[in-house]
Amino acid sequence: MAKRWEDHSLPSNLRAAARSNLYIGMISCLLGVGITVVGYMELWSWVDLLPGSQSYVVQMGFVFLGIYAFQQGERNRWRAQVASSRLSDYRRLHAGIGAAEPVFGPQVIRGTYQEYTKWFAVGAVLTSGGVFTVSACFLPPPEGLGPAGWWALRAFFVLLGAFNLIVAKNAFRRAVRLRVGVIPSFTPLPAGSYVLYLRNFSDDPQLAKPFPMLGLRPLIPGLFMLARSEEERLETALRWAGSPMIAVGVPGERAPNNGILRMQLPNDWQAPVRKLVRDARLVVLVLGRGAGTLWELGEVMRELPPERLVLVNPMKRAKYEEFRSVAREALHAQADELERTTGHRWTPPELPDPPADRRTPSRVRGIIHWSRDWKPTYVPLPRVLPPEDYLLGALDRALWAPMLQMTEHERRVGAPHG
């Protein structure tokens, strides 16, 4: 068995196809950007591809052709990245322990089709308006307007166009989220049939933001497509552990994030969360300083074997050190309360030291996993270069050791839970 990510080889035909599709997708994305630039050059009269044509019409045609090429390239890259996951391939070959299919009952979509249509239309109109507004910078200056006034007007067009595109992205995201289904009430699921995702509700807006593609900053990809969020990438990167991934829904939330399936819980939520923790195949907890998250951290450490727990760190070193101090105090307070009420003494595991900070395009900075005797290991996300998707590729590498530990644990206990 491969002890390192680098030692596991994908089937040669899959490896070759995925690699070529990653490069084809990247080239298509860059070609899409290039086609758009050529359209602007045509309007600026730096090139004359179609002499005598209406330059504005030609330029807009190039812009939308570039958008289409970028979209197709990014879809190719995504499919190739998912297909080339060595975690999933290893689990397919060595896991050997299936799980019962979860039974959810009907899911509820809280947004209406009319609301979805309205927000989608707003996004489409604002996107077109933003593209046309930015394009107006390249038109001839109005008569009687001096150079200084024309440059000021151009700056206004650029700012207005960028504002339209940013608002359009939010409108599209709102439209998508209004059609996301949720499990409307607590539903006990078959043990080992799901992965549980726990986080501070306040982290949702950050994890729902579009993730930079090909190293480009968000505004540029936002012009070409609605980029997948970090939450969607986390859900995809953890499919090796089982599907679906379940998260506790924000009470009363009308438009949940797209990515991880939400389950609404009653006001007395701690007992249902404890039940979900005990029966999960894997628990993934995003570290955060909320009281609920600190309670959940104590629960997963007490209720789970260490091989079924992965912590995700979204904090820089200084913030993580502060959190570690707060968590140590909170966990020891929970241990004291447990001893007073049950007589059972529990010693909370220590969180590990973090490595030095470095620049990363992802909000996720590293993961923490545990040995059988609760010794922690902090794994910073490794550097991953294009054409790979940074977060999917980095998580595929960083989660290798936890995946091996969980696979060996399941083989030892003979079940996908416990």
Structural class: alpha/beta
* Main β-sheet, spatial strand arrangement: 1-2-5-4-3-6-7-8-9
Distance between the termini: 24 Å
> What is the ordering of alpha helices and beta strands?
HHHEHHEEHHHEEHEHEHEEHH
Q: How many beta-strand elements?
A: 9
Shape: globular
Give Rg in angstroms: 25 Å
Number of helices: 13
Work out the strand percent: 5-15%
In terms of per-residue confidence, which ranges show pLDDT below 50 for 5 or more consecutive residues?
214-222
Assembly category = single chain
Q: What's the domain count?
A: 3
Largest sheet, strands/sense/barrel:
9 strands, mixed
State the share of residues found in helices, binned by percent. 40-55%
Look at the structure and give the mean pLDDT: 85
Mind explaining what this structure looks like?
By secondary structure, the chain is of the alpha/beta class. It folds into three domains: 1-84; 101-110 and 181-413, no CATH class; 116-176. 52% of the residues lie in helices and 9% in strands. It contains 13 helices and nine strands. The protein has a nine-stranded mixed β-sheet with strand order 1-2-5-4-3-6-7-8-9, sandwiched between helices. Helix 1 runs antiparallel to helix 2, helix 4 (113-135) runs antiparallel to helix 5 and helix 10 (291-303) packs across helix 11. The chain is globular and about 85 Å long.
